[in-house]
Specification:
With about 270 residues, the protein is mainly alpha-helical. It has one domain. Helix content is about 55%, strand content about 10%. The protein contains nine helices and six strands; from the N terminus they run αββαααββααααββα. The strands form three sheets. A two-stranded antiparallel sheet has the order 1-2. Strands 3-4 form a two-stranded antiparallel ribbon. It has a two-stranded antiparallel ribbon with strand order 5-6. A hairpin with a 4-residue loop joins strand 3 and strand 4. Helix 1 (about 5-25) crosses helix 9, helix 2 crosses helix 5 (about 130-140) and helix 5 packs across helix 7. The radius of gyration is 21 Å and the shape is elongated.
Length: about 270
């Protein structure tokens, strides 16, 4: 059975909330400083896991998933433009967080690189979202499963008038990650964590009025149990389960506080 718009929204919001919880948490990183904050990853391995999970977040949903195939960021844009739970503009913080993240990701930036494997120094122009996804895929896969990333690197290099073979590109992937992943994305770790945390808090702000409407104590129950009153047009069982779990998520505030990194950290590559 095809899902309606409100059912798809609930499913996407739950999936996005879970993904951000897996990336921005106290096991992976620590937020230091206030009012100007920065993020410190617990180790290089934790930072790599963060990039891998972020790559999934920036990708499209599986074509076999029970919702319309689209990217999570694309789903957030649609939700903030067509919100089903908006009360007194409760969607505003989610809308702003999504827009700011999307604009930052789509910006094309110049990056100076030294690629010792092919003895090449050049300046590449690449959108930040491509930078993140290429690094994430390098981390996820052995070089024998990274032909797609290698071909993307060849295209980026070609734009700077640097021609390499597929074999050379495969051997250069480690050089690329050292510059883009271990260097640039480490620098931007605080910015990325802030964007994601703002989206999570935006979902919380957006859904709190719905939680207040829906949450009901079971009358006379000795154990203090509760239930949620589903929206009338939320009928698919999978969507109802996602709704219940999402309402449980927004019962309490997100477990990483709101924080803001200095604007200067958002600039440059």
């Amino acid at each position: 059975m095809a899902l309606n718009q409100i059912e798809e929204e609930v499913i996407f919001l739950k999936a996005i909330y879970d993904l951000i919880n897996s990336m921005v948490n106290h096991e992976i990183l620590t937020v230091v400083g206030d009012p100007d904050s920065s993020v410190m990853f617990k180790s290089a391995t934790h930072h790599q896991l963060f990039i891998i999970l972020l790559t999934d977040f920036l990708s499209q949903t599986d074509k076999e998933a029970p919702i319309t195939k689209k990217s999570y960021v694309g789903a957030l844009k649609f939700i903030t433009e067509h919100p089903n739970f908006n009360v007194d503009d409760s969607v505003s913080s989610l809308r702003d967080a999504t827009s700011q993240f999307s604009i930052w990701l789509d910006e094309e930036v110049p990056i100076e690189v030294w690629l010792p494997t092919i003895s090449t120094e050049t300046t590449l122009r690449v959108r930040r979202i491509m930078l993140v996804k290429m690094c994430g895929n390098i981390l996820k896969h052995n070089f024998l499963r990274s032909v797609g990333v290698a071909n993307e690197l060849r295209e980026v290099l070609q734009q700077s008038k640097v021609s390499v073979t597929l074999h050379e590109a495969l051997l250069t992937l480690d050089d690329l990650y050292e510059r883009w992943g271990a260097d640039i994305l480490r620098y931007h770790g605080s910015t990325l964590a802030e964007f994601l945390n703002n989206i999570r808090w935006g979902i919380y702000d957006y859904m709190r009025p719905e939680f207040s409407r829906s949450f009901t104590r079971i009358e006379g129950d000795a154990y203090g149990r509760y239930e949620y009153k589903y929206p009338s047009n939320l009928t698919a069982e999978f969507a109802k389960e996602c709704y219940w779990n999402l309402m449980n998520d927004v019962r309490s505030t997100p477990y990483v506080r709101r924080f803001k990194v200095p604007e200067v950290l958002k600039l440059g590559f």
